[in-house]
What we know:
Radius of gyration: 18 Å
Number of helices: 9
Shape: globular
Order of helices and strands: HHHHHHHHH
Number of domains: 2
Amino acid sequence: MPTEEEYKEFVKKFRALISRQKQEKALDLAEELFAEGPNAVLNKITAFRSRIYNLKSKEDELTDDQEKTNENKIRNSLLDYFTNIKIPHPDQNPDVDSENIPTTPSVRPSGSMSDRELRKLLCRLYPDIDQVKTVVADVEPSILGLINWENGVDSAWREALHEAKNRSLTEVVLDIAKDDFKKSAKIIADLDRYIVTD
């Protein structure tokens, strides 16, 4: 984990790279700084690389406006995440690593959202199969072929979330939904109640 000073310097360079449309170089910089963890940040870097790759692979199918909109979403998500990472104070006990504290996925803190509640919320936000396919393609295109799309939206989301969880990509699903519904404080608050355990 970098020091506060190292992180502040990183944020300046990261913002500069993003402003020059150099998202992949910005992720290289993040990977270098967080090479020793925490794993949550490294997983996030992998997820963002996947989103950028997916967007590039769909360039021919998108209009210029759609491409620009998707690029802006990724850029805003990158800035939002990588410029707001909490760096522990040096006085904090170095032996205490919150990532290594065992968690029991089946027992969630009071007030948090269950897997079923998340699925129901996503069904309301994306009630059309084509909408679900679009989100899944943005998360990880390889998942598309693993889902039975004939059994309705609820079943599609159940399978999609299962596959995303197996790949530690649940947070990417949440990020995309937050991006799509960023004007609704209520939806953002609901999505924030879900605690990612993958």
